[in-house]
Amino acid sequence: MLALARKADLTAGLEQRIDYFNAHLPDAVLPETSYGAIISNSLLHHLKSPDTLWKTIQRFAGSDTKIFIMDLLRPASTEAVEQLVAEYTSGEPPVLKKDFHNSLLAAYNQEEILSQLETGRLDKLGFEIVSDRHFIVWGSL
To answer: Which one, 15, 39, 47, 83, has the greatest CB density within 10 A?
Structure first.
């Protein structure tokens, strides 16, 4: 994924403005103490503890850091999970259908995410459901 991102940055002429690091949270060692932007797409539902993401944001966000987190939102029922899997993985291999199904089940619901933000002292960030299966958290600290 990092190689693909670097290639896209090169094509867009952004290679001098964006750096990528292969690091494991929560013990990531990065060259800066804060960053201008923190972006995460579909990481939260893969983490053993959601605090890993929120504490990392607290650790590396300055007062002007722009934060944008997007992830899956857990559906309200197993029937809703099955409906989303059927709608969005039609024609895909069984392994992708299974992965999407498991990811939806591993995702958090709105109340859990808002509680995580409050516990992590990140509740001034915005929260919005943006599709039938995604939410975003955004803002600055």
So the answer is: 47
Distance CA 27, CA 31 (A): 13
> Tens-of-pLDDT digits for all 141 residues of the chain?
889 999 999 999 998 988 888 888 989 899 999 999 999 999 999 999 999 999 999 999 998 999 999 999 999 999 999 999 999 999 999 999 999 999 999 999 999 999 999 999 999 999 999 999 999 999 998
pTM, two decimals, is 0.89
Q: In what order do the strands lie in the sheet with 61-72?
A: 35-41, 61-72, 134-139, 126-129
Instruction: Tell how strand 61-72 and strand 35-41 pair up.
Output: parallel
Indicate whether 113 and 103 sit together in one domain.
no
